[in-house]
Write a structure and sequence with these properties.
rod-shaped, single chain, about 80 residues, mainly alpha
């Protein structure tokens, strides 16, 4: 036959079960409302890590090179 449990022990077991249920419910929750929001967070994290790098500097070098070529072309022709 099963041993009889005291009322305090049953209450403690029930309380532990409630806490476990709350933790399980919060573990399944997603902090993002949509996939677009999730993708935006990933891009923001990658930019903060420096994965994409600065694009302005590349554009400035390209424009400077084109300006030099245009100047050379204008001087010789």
């Amino acid at each position: 036959m099963w041993p009889l449990r005291r009322f305090a022990q049953v209450g403690a077991d029930f309380h532990a079960l409630e806490i476990t249920e709350e933790r399980a419910g919060s573990a399944l929750a997603c902090p993002y409302a949509s996939s677009a929001e999730y993708e935006a967070a990933i891009i923001q994290a990658r930019r903060a890590a420096g994965v994409y790098g600065p694009k302005r500097q590349r554009r400035q070098w390209l424009l400077a090179g084109l300006a030099c070529l245009a100047l050379i072309f204008a001087l010789f022709f």
